[in-house]
Amino acid sequence: MHVYTAPVVVPIAGDPVRDGAVGVDDDGRIAYVGPAAEAPEADGTTALSGVMTPGLVNAHTHLCYTGYADMYGNEKEFFEWVQEFARRNPQVADEEWKTATQEGIDQSLRAGVTAVADVVTPPVGFEALLASELAGVAYWEACFIDDESWEDRRNSWREIVTETRAINNSDIAVGISPHTLYTLGTGVVKSLVEFARTLDIRLHPHLAETEHEDMFVRNGAGPFAFMNRRMGLRVQLGDGGSGHSPAAQMAKLDLLGGDCHIAHGVHLDADDRRLLREQGTAVALCARSNARLESGEAPVAAHRKEGNPVALGTDSRASSPDLEVAGEWPVLRKLALAQGDDGDGLNEWLVRAATEGGARALGRTDIGAIKVGARADLAVFAVDAEANPYAALVSEAAGNCKATVVAGRLIEH
Ligand SMILES: [Zn+2]
């Protein structure tokens, strides 16, 4: 056993421990958490300074787009921004995708992120991810496909999933990401859901990110209807719409459930939120991405008040300044307070969303908390260890991760 000590350990599975320690077995699992003075005898001890948390979970990202960081600053609005992917992607060579994904993995580890819900666009994007020490789910994405073209693409698309699963021996599961309701034909979505349920693998779509999405799904109108016509994409909803909200439409297509979590959830009313809560579908909030794309502000205070399952994501570098999940904390705190949250327990709620909330969104019970038997994933932040640790983490952790332990292996930054 190797022991890591820190002035404060925030296990999430219990109350913060002053002068705490975490014992890690050779198999990369946690064997002890508690006061350093009571830690069992170890082969070695490493004293880390700062506040130790479970490794953070980035519940929505696209690591393959780490090379698209210029899009964060290009000031294009959503409608133009989203089409840039379709223009740029075919020009990127496999080696560039691999390098970008690896860079995203490295940036994540430096930020104390040890698990991801990663949306994979090029098949080669799986390679670096499944060779990494991260935990989580890699979701093979379907985007800009109508029912007609699905006929030709269905088999090869499915093969990527089955072949990747066959060779995968990482701690990252393979899942499916039906991109959105405005970039996929209704038949394509149904086919993807059926395929995921047959294989018993997880689903992760984007939902309720923009008002324009709402407009398209309800009425078949707005910029996305125009975009699809321009791209020659025949999405049935563009023909008059469904008459109800995007969340209701996803429920109708059987896409929601405990095996699914959604990204963004900005434009969700009380009925939509209840629907997601009843289905056990977690929402990965991506506040900084929403701010960059001027998509609106997610109902953070309402989620907390209603006890909805919530996780945090950065989204990709094309809409986020970095891959720091801790960077979402102060932004979400500000949003919640502005929305009328009384602030009591808010910091702890935010830290839980980035740890156990993320684990739940990914269907994992062995990450997101420091407890015996869990994967030894830890993050140590240089924040004021004397203060309330949750408050210190929320206000100061971003950019201040000093050490990450991933499956028992220490990386100091
Ligand atoms: Zn996304």
Task: Describe this protein with a few key phrases.
4-stranded parallel beta sheet; TIM Barrel; 413 residues; alpha/beta; Urease, subunit C, domain 1; 21% strand; binds zinc ion; globular
Structure description:
- The chain has 413 residues and is α/β, with parallel strands linked by helices.
- It contains 15 helices and 16 strands.
- Helix 9 links the parallel strand 11 and strand 12.
- Helix 12 crosses helix 13 and helix 13 packs across helix 15.
- The two termini are 23 Å apart.
- Zinc ion binds next to loops.
Bound molecules: zinc ion
Helix/strand/pairing category:
alpha/beta
State the CATH architecture of the largest domain.
Alpha-Beta Barrel
- Characterize the overall form: globular
Helical content, roughly? 25-40%
From the 3D structure, determine the CATH topology of the largest domain.
TIM Barrel
Distance between the termini: 23 Å
Record the SSE blueprint:
Blueprint (H helix, E strand, L loop, with lengths): L1 E8 L7 E8 L5 E6 L8 E4 L3 E4 L1 E6 L16 H11 L5 H17 L2 E8 L4 H6 L4 E8 L4 H21 L3 E8 L7 H14 L6 E2 L3 H9 L3 H9 L14 H7 L8 E4 L5 H10 L2 E4 L1 H6 L7 H7 L3 E3 L15 H11 L7 H8 L2 H6 L16 E4 L7 H8 L4 E6 L2 E4 L1
Parallel strand pairs: 1-4, 1-5, 6-7, 7-8, 8-9, 10-11, 11-12, 12-13
Antiparallel strand pairs: 1-2, 2-3, 5-14, 14-15, 15-16
The chain binds zinc ion (ZN).
